[in-house]
Design a protein that fits this description.
The protein has helices spanning 17-37, 46-78, 88-100, 113-120, 133-147, 152-157, 204-215, 238-252, 265-277, 282-289, 294-298; strands spanning 163-165, 169-175, 189-195, 224-226, 232-235. With 308 residues, the protein is mainly α. A three-stranded antiparallel beta sheet has the order 1-2-3, with no helix packed on it. The longest helix has 33 residues, at 46-78. Residues 106-308 form the Tyr recombinase domain. GO terms for molecular function: DNA binding. Keywords: DNA recombination, DNA-binding.
Length: 308
């Protein structure tokens, strides 16, 4: 029987590490369900896949089901097995779910300096040694994410080689901002400057300096995953940033307003909204946020409602 986690590789278009992890998680969930149903998962019958997706539709929704289906298709092709993405049974199911589960997209609640300071207050405790790594990393991640108006993909992609500390602040090299594929990284980059803050408690540059000094990280990812004991592991993922934000928000009782949601994108939204609110010129806002479309930038103008 083929491995449930690492089917034999076949030639396929390269996928990002984040996509591969999502596919691996969905694949394991499918395999576990098949095992419980005494059904074959590799190869899987279209009826089996349809039954699985039907079972998951209430908590995944249309987009989640499409990702789960893509993960199953991917692992079949990796194993050299034929798979049709247009199977009529599955296609009909996905189409019907899309019609019945159309959901309004809730915007990310803008996290302004006030909310960021509240989140950072949950990172104050530093018992020393590796035990303090979690708070130090999260403080640096949240403060630099807000101060730089970074997308979470940009945040987790930062390496030590992308940082240049000066007396005035920190210059970040943003590599390949919107591409998943490493082959494009060298051809697309930009830089931005993060100034030092007036207060040590919320200064993003100082938070980064302390984190790097204490962790001993000198090259590679500056934001790695950490074990409970503070052991440094692989690069943090975008989903990991979301989990950090959710955990820190729960610790300080921060909630999104009705109709909005807490999301790492809120740090970027809050940064841009505050820049507009302080009278920054639109061209300056777009340059710092690395935006090319004025209509996109204007969507971030201050709006009513903030986390409370």
């Amino acid at each position: 029987m083929e491995s449930r986690d690492r089917p034999q590789a076949a030639a396929q278009k390269p996928l990002s590490a984040t996509t591969l992890k999502i596919y691996a998680d969905d694949w394991r969930a499918f395999c576990d369900w098949c095992a419980a149903q005494n059904a074959s998962y590799l190869p899987a019958l279209s009826a089996t896949v349809a039954a699985y997706l039907t079972m998951r539709q209430n908590n995944l929704g249309g987009s989640g089901l499409r990702v789960a289906h893509a993960a199953i298709a991917f692992h079949h092709r990796q194993a050299g097995l034929a798979w049709s993405s247009t199977d009529p049974v599955i296609a009909t199911l996905l189409r019907d779910v899309a019609k019945t589960q159309t959901r309004a997209v809730r915007p990310a609640a803008a996290l302004t300096a006030t909310e960021i300071a509240l989140l950072l207050s949950s990172c104050d405790h530093d018992p020393g040694g590796r035990a303090g790594f979690l708070n130090l990393r999260d403080r640096a991640l949240l403060s630099i994410g807000f101060a730089g108006g970074l997308r979470r993909s940009e945040l987790v992609a930062l390496d030590c080689e992308d940082l240049d500390f000066t007396t005035a602040g920190l210059t970040l090299r943003i590599r390949n901002p919107r591409s998943d594929q490493p082959s494009a990284a060298a051809s697309s980059s930009s830089s931005l400057i993060v100034s030092r803050g007036t207060q040590a408690e919320t200064c993003p540059v100082q938070a980064m300096e302390i984190w790097l000094r204490r962790s001993g990280i000198e090259y590679g990812p500056i934001f790695p995953r950490l074990t409970a004991a503070g052991t440094i592991e692989a690069r943090l993922t975008g989903n990991g940033v979301w989990k950090i934000l959710r955990r820190r928000a729960a610790q300080v009782g921060l909630q999104a307003p009705a109709g909005q949601r807490l999301s790492p994108h809120g740090m970027r939204a809050g940064f841009i909204a505050e820049a507009y609110g302080k009278g920054a010129a639109e061209a300056e806002v777009m340059a710092q946020a690395r935006q090319k479309d004025r209509s996109t930038a204007r969507r971030y103008r201050p709006r009513a409602g903030s986390p409370a």
